[in-house]
Design goal:
Helix content of chain A: 25-40%
Largest interface: A-B, 92 and 92 residues
Shape of chain A: elongated
Number of helices of chain A: 20
Radius of gyration of chain A: 41 Å
Strand content of chain A: 25-35%
Structural class of chain B: alpha+beta
Order of helices and strands of chain B: HHHHHEEHEEHEEHEEEHEHHH
Helix content of chain B: 25-40%
Number of helices of chain B: 12
Strand content of chain B: 15-25%
Strand order of the largest sheet of chain B: 1-5-6-10-9-8-7
Largest sheet of chain B: 7 strands, mixed
Strand order of the largest sheet of chain A: 28-33-34-38-37-36-35
Oligomer: heterodimer
Distance between the termini of chain A: 92 Å
Chain lengths: 811, 379
């Protein structure tokens, strides 16, 4: 909402700097987004009078005008068709910066004196476009007859416009009057209202001029019939005010309705009375499928919940939203019906939303317009109508207002203010503020009773009153304290603790954390899907069962993902454009459908993607690509860091993954994760062609459970460990995990470490075999181990390796 | 010089029976061995040579050791004297060896160290360490700051019902305030399901599950249906704060937020409240911190206002308290919300919010050097 300062000053006497005023209003809740100094660019531009106009001796279309602006009198060559002696105009002197009227660029040019067809032109008579006021460049701007001559134009036409952001609760501030009332309270200044015609003085309508068929949606409708109107351009001052407020000038009648809307916040509408079938107004619900053409020349199809203004035959306006073309005021209009009404805010909002049609009127009705404002608004409009069309006659008026709104009262403890704000204000300050805001406060025995004006529909509870007091007296007066009272024991969320630990471990292992978008396309997800079956990695679900957005920003990505991996792959690909290798992880939710129309199950998972070179390019680095074992090692260490051991890796096949390089992570017979190398085809889908990519996803919530289950006791070692290296020869197909299990079984409780350090194949052990070399570490908590201990253990190991892995120890 | 490697050669023949009775010969031999060894020690050029001498003379199979074995064959009257003399010489040689070893050893060390000189300007072996996303660095930091003030960190769901996202927060479906939140809608034939537009739904969810006093913060992802640009992102993170108890005041809110601002932006910071509208608080404010760059005087960073907006806040609306069954006349509370990305941007001068979900490692790795405590705000 744009409010010119001079307009405000008609309502409230203030003499403060616009910036300071804006600051104060903003702190009080009426946010000034911008201060627009209109006319500040009008340097060397004056109001002037045309003294005489002569023909240019050498050009038919040009004239020589002698123009006077105070001490300046000059000759100007102009082609303006509408210039005439005696006019008040705007004169720009050499050096003035004006917009080039002949181009659409809107660029400023500095005016220089120059000869036009042999005659020196010392200045320029300006059009609205050249002054940056509008696009009008047909003729020069002609000022009213009573315009002072010789004044800098900024002093005459310039103004400071405050541009407000109006939050939904600020219906009462959506007008010049509303802002003026705020200023009155902030500066304790009195309000003056301009003249208006008292509706009571207008003869009542004899016929059934107005009928409200839908009183639930229209609480009041005032119609006034004015005859003998002379439709034409608005006076300059009305057009200017509208322009400054950002409203286009149409004609004097329409402009008056808009002027009053801006001034009082009461939307008004003027119908061409002659075109009303039956010369009457019916406020009713639309018929289902009923059509009407709105003023923007679009045919609207209505439904039975929309409120319309109709005549005897048809809908002629969308109530509170926009009028119709059929009854639009035109140049030939001679009598009008002026509407000032109160429509239901929800109904207006619904209609406006369904038809995607917003207007200055609907913006106000949506926030709620006080029905008692209707009479004031129409009174002001009638006053202005008689000014802009002096021959007009107010014939009759009807005011249908079956249930007049009455002010509500609210009683609260006075000390509620201090209890809520943490600071007490003197009684007289509170009373003054509320009175200035047009509440009627009474204080008795600690009870504050407030009569709430009907235009404050936003105020209904004690806290609303507290806010009025706090914001006007200033929140700067609120001290900064800390809450006292009972403390609440802080329980740290185990999920969050675990995630923090995982973040620390994974970053220590070289991976960086990403935060990726939660939406996915069908094809991204289907990369990890069997044909026509389920999609996903850790938690596969049918694609069509996944949650979908109705209004995705990217229409191709409507799904809420059930795996983090696709987005991480995209992130990896984009980073690999400028890096040798990437290690990425994300801890985020996946969304699993819990049934139709149900909120989904949200599970926190850990996604990891590694690809490219393992090491940075340096003299220590190998040129090896990251592979499955980088990921497995990282996962193992991450699990160890969160106190989880005893998970196993089982060979797995999963859609989108390499059939021979993929493992399921199992804990307690339950799959908790999947890691593997991507199928080359999947990698290609994500622009990772010709490069190995390993990826995994782990159920982070399952980890919390596992992490908490295992209690670890920690002891300080007192004896040196004994190490023994063993090579186990087994068949090629025997998994290393089987060998390790066998070794552990044989080694018994003294085993405190096991590390595989070599895998060997060669003729000496047989072509079908492989040799796995382990270093076993033995420690006893209670004594130093002896050779005899090891001999015994070795014997047992020999047995278990044979039994469990079908292998033998290599000598 | 006696050839090395044969410890017995020096005294060969002299331990035979023909030598019997030649006591002077033992002493002579002893003396000869001493003199010879001293000469060798002095002439040795390396610690390795000294090791050889030590082994050849003093070692278990060394010359001196061999000589000493003859002591037993001496006349008993001569034995004490010969024994003492032998020990003296043994000690003397040991000391000489040690001294010479030290001299030679230190110069050898100097030589070796000199030969091991490296170019210390060569780059080191850099461990690859990743970066915790700046958003989570901030969430962890905020969680710590608020824990000190007794606030528990809890998390809420991201796909939320319209009921919790709006209705329970005093934003009924036909209220224009609902338009303020540009909302992603999830397909549903039944109840309205949305991507939460703020972390505020947890206000009701937390209060439903507990009775006062309540002190929680809720960090998490939030979603708004809006086009992306440098200052708008459709997915971002918020942190909600909620405290409900008897006699919680707006001043308490200011104190908590001021403490937050000081922890994040430095000990001189202060908080300013401005009246603002959010349907779930009354009174409602937005809060700003005075600009740390210019100390509130006005500069480019704060757009010459002296203040940087941090978020929205207020006293929990009576209807929100009543919706979860709290007695709104007995209990009062405050709630606030702030943007996590915005906090990072304010502290580090990041000028494009899209960078956070962009995950360009060149961006993320700049957050490896994590500011400890209240750092200075980047200009």
């Amino acid at each position: 909402m744009r409010v010119p300062l001079k307009w405000l000053q008609e309502f409230v006497e203030i003499d403060v700097d616009a910036t300071e005023l804006a600051r104060k209003l903003t702190l009080a809740g009426l946010e000034v987004e911008k201060i627009d100094h209109i006319g500040s660019e009008w340097d060397k531009v004056f109001t002037a009078v045309v003294q005489k106009v002569e023909r240019h001796p050498d050009a038919d279309r040009l004239v020589l005008a002698t123009v006077e602006a105070g001490e300046h009198q000059l000759t100007v060559v102009t082609g303006a068709p509408n210039i005439a002696a005696g006019q008040n105009v705007v004169l720009a002197l050499a050096g003035a910066r004006l917009i080039d009227g002949h181009s659409d660029s809107g660029q400023y040019k500095t005016l220089k004196p120059g000869k036009i067809r042999g005659i020196m032109s010392e200045g320029m008579v300006c059009s609205e476009k050249e002054l940056g006021m509008s696009d009008e460049h047909e003729g020069i701007l002609v000022l009213p007859d009573d315009a002072p001559v010789g004044l800098p134009l900024q002093d005459y036409l310039g103004d400071t416009v405050l541009e407000f952001e109006i939050t939904p609760n600020l219906a009462h501030d959506f007008s010049v009057l509303g802002v003026a009332r705020e200023i009155g309270a902030l500066y304790h200044a009195a309000l003056t209202e301009p003249g208006r015609i008292d509706l009571e003085s207008v003869p009542g309508a004899k016929t059934d001029l107005i009928t409200i068929d839908a009183p639930d949606l229209c609480s009041r409708y005032i119609g006034a019939v004015v005859r003998g109107v002379d439709v034409g351009p608005s006076p300059e001052w009305i057009a200017r005010r509208l322009r400054q407020a950002g409203v286009r000038s149409i004609n004097n009648i329409v402009d008056v309705t808009n002027y009053v809307m801006l001034e009082y916040g009461q939307p008004l509408h003027a119908f061409d009375f002659e075109r009303l079938a039956g010369q009457r107004i019916i406020v009713r619900r639309a018929g289902d499928g009923e059509r009407m053409e709105t003023l923007d020349h679009i045919e609207r199809v209505l439904d039975a919940d929309m409120l319309v203004i109709a005549d005897s035959d048809r809908a002629i306006a969308l109530a509170g939203v926009m009028g119709g073309t059929d009854t639009e005021v035109s140049d030939t209009t001679t009598s009008i019906l002026l509407e000032s009404a109160a429509f239901d805010m929800k109904s207006v909002r619904r209609t406006s939303r369904l038809l995607k049609l917003r207007s200055d009127a609907s913006a106000r009705f949506e926030r709620g317009v006080d029905p008692n404002l209707a009479a004031i608004g129409i009174g002001r409009a009638l006053e202005l109508l008689l000014q802009v069309s002096p021959g007009a006659e107010i014939v009759e008026a009807a005011d249908v207002y079956p249930a007049p709104a009455v002010p509500r009262r609210l009683t609260m403890r006075f000390d509620r203010i201090e209890h809520l704000l943490g600071v007490g204000f003197p009684e007289e300050d509170v009373i003054r503020v509320l009175t200035d805001l047009e509440f009627q406060p009474e204080l008795e025995g600690g009870d504050l009773t407030v009569t709430i004006p009907t235009f404050r529909q936003d105020v209904s509870i004690p806290e609303d009153i507290v806010e009025e007091v706090g914001r006007v007296l200033g929140y700067d007066n609120v001290p900064a304290t800390l809450p006292v009272g009972q403390t609440v024991p802080v329980v740290r969320d185990p999920n969050f603790l675990l995630q923090t630990k995982l973040r620390q471990t994974l970053t220590a292992a070289g991976a960086s954390e990403a935060i990726t978008y939660i939406t996915a396309s069908g094809s991204m997800l289907s990369t990890f899907g069997a044909n026509g079956g389920e999609v996903g990695v850790l938690t596969p679900r049918p694609l069509d069962s996944l949650l979908q957005l109705i209004n995705p920003l990217n229409a191709e990505r409507p799904y809420l993902r059930n795996t983090l991996i696709p987005a991480l792959l995209e992130t990896a690909a984009s980073n690999l454009r400028h890096r040798r290798g990437v290690k990425l992880f994300e801890l985020a939710r996946v969304y699993l459908p819990a049934g139709r129309n149900q909120l989904p199950e949200e599970i926190q998972t850990l996604g990891i993607v590694l690809s490219g070179q393992r090491d940075a390019l340096d003299r220590f680095g190998s040129n090896e690509p990251l592979d499955f074992f980088d990921l497995k090692g990282m996962v193992d260490e991450a699990l160890r860091q969160v106190n989880i051991s005893g998970v196993s890796y089982e060979p797995a096949e999963a859609p989108g993954f390499h059939p021979g390089r993929t493992a399921r992570i199992v804990a307690d017979d339950r799959p908790i994760g999947l890691i593997g190398e991507l199928h080359p085809e999947s990698a290609r889908q994500f622009d990772l062609e010709g490069i190995r990519v390993v990826a995994g996803e782990i159920d982070a919530e399952a980890l919390v459970e596992l992490s908490q289950r295992q209690k670890s006791s920690i002891s300080a070692p007192r004896f040196l460990p004994v190490e023994q290296d063993l090579a186990v020869v087994v068949a090629e197909g025997t998994p290393a995990a089987t060998v390790e299990t066998a070794l552990r079984a044989g080694a018994g409780p003294l085993l405190t470490g096991i590390a595989l350090f070599d895998v060997f194949r060669g003729p000496q052990i047989g072509a079908e075999n492989k040799s796995l070399a382990y270093r076993l570490t033995f420690t006893s908590p209670g004594r130093a181990l002896t050779d005899a201990d090891l001999v015994k253990v070795r014997g047992k190991i020999e047995k278990t390796v044979k039994q469990q892995a079908g292998g033998k120890l290599r000598v | 010089m006696v050839p090395r490697g044969d410890p017995a050669s020096l005294i060969e023949g002299c331990v035979s029976s023909e030598c019997e009775g030649h006591v002077s010969t033992f002493t002579e031999q002893l003396e000869r061995l001493r003199a010879q060894t001293v000469a060798e020690i002095e002439g040795a050029l390396s610690t390795a040579e000294l090791d050889d001498i030590e082994r050849n003379v003093l070692g278990g199979k060394g010359q001196l050791t061999a000589l000493l074995r003859q002591l037993g064959s001496l006349d008993p009257s001569e034995r004490p004297e010969a024994g003492r003399e032998s020990n003296r010489i043994k000690q003397e040689l040991a000391i000489l060896l040690a001294q010479r070893k030290e001299t030679l050893g230190s110069s050898e060390l100097v030589e070796r160290l000199e030969s091991e000189r490296i170019d210390i300007t060569l780059p080191g072996r850099v461990p690859q360490i990743g970066v915790i996303h700046p958003v989570f660095q901030m969430i962890e930091e905020l969680s710590d700051i608020f824990a000190l003030m007794g606030f528990q960190t809890v998390f809420g769901r991201e796909v939320e019902s319209g009921f919790y996202n709006f209705d329970q927060l005093n934003i009924p479906s036909d209220h224009p305030a609902r338009d303020v939140w540009d909302t992603f809608l999830v397909q549903s034939d039944g109840e309205e399901i949305v991507l939460r537009t703020h972390t505020s739904p947890m206000q009701a969810r937390v209060m439903e599950q507990t009775s006062p006093p309540v002190r929680v913060i809720v960090p998490g992802r939030t979603y708004r249906y809006e086009a992306q640009d440098a200052s708008h992102e459709w997915m971002f993170h918020q942190l909600e704060g909620l405290a409900v108890d008897e006699r919680i005041t707006l001043a308490d809110l200011k104190g908590v937020l001021q403490e937050l601002a000081r922890q994040l932006f430095g000990p001189r910071r202060k908080i300013r409240f401005r009246c603002d509208f959010f349907p779930f608080v009354e009174p409602g404010v937005d809060f700003a911190v005075d600009c740390a760059i210019c100390d509130g005087a006005g500069c480019r960073v704060c757009k010459h206002s002296g203040w940087l907006e941090m978020g929205g806040a207020g006293m929990v609306h009576r209807k929100v308290l009543e919706a979860v069954g709290y007695d709104a006349d007995k209990y009062s509370g405050f709630a606030f919300g702030l943007g996590i990305e915005r906090m990072v941007m304010m502290r580090h001068g990041v000028d494009d919010v899209r960078a956070f979900a962009g995950n360009d490692l060149r961006f993320l790795q700049q957050f490896a050097a994590k500011t400890v405590g209240a750092g200075s705000v980047a200009a």
